[in-house]
Design brief:
By secondary structure, the protein is an alpha/beta fold.
Length: about 140
């Protein structure tokens, strides 16, 4: 698994670009697409450390995409966060059952977005020093 690669599977180009810029500013390599087939091939080829997938994709939605990763030995350990505009209790349960490690509400600010990812990302200690310092600084600003 590549420690610094994040895959974004999102239909909205504006969100993909915004999240990409936030992640790249924090030192990540980012792969982003709206095509599920492309995303699946990238997961197999690059083994990202984290995947962010929208729940409203078609023909394979984020829940199904997450289950696909969970059902394969080579990808089952990759953390997946699902993104939605509106989260009811039923949606959160469905996300948990599909194997998602986090539920991100669309519209998170940069700090909360990165915080959610770092909470679930498996990165070795030596690669997180600068990021941890940045998170501490951002946390002090938010309060």
């Amino acid at each position: 698994m590549s420690k610094r690669i994040v895959l974004i599977l999102e239909e909205c180009r504006i969100l993909r670009e915004e999240w990409r810029s936030w992640l790249m500013a924090d030192g990540f390599h980012v792969l982003s697409t709206s095509d599920q087939r492309v995303a699946l091939s990238w997961v197999k080829r690059f083994r990202p450390a984290f995947v962010i997938a929208n729940t409203r994709l078609a023909p394979i939605d984020g829940f199904q995409f997450c289950r696909l990763l969970r059902n394969h030995r080579d990808t089952q350990s990759i953390p997946v966060a699902l993104v939605s505009e509106d989260w009811e209790k039923r949606g959160r349960v469905r996300a948990e059952l599909s194997g998602a490690v986090a539920v991100l509400q669309s519209g998170l600010n940069r700090h909360h977005f990165l915080d959610e990812i770092y909470d679930h990302l498996l990165i070795e200690e030596e690669t997180t020093g600068t990021a941890r310092e940045r998170r501490t600084f951002l946390s002090s600003l938010v309060g």
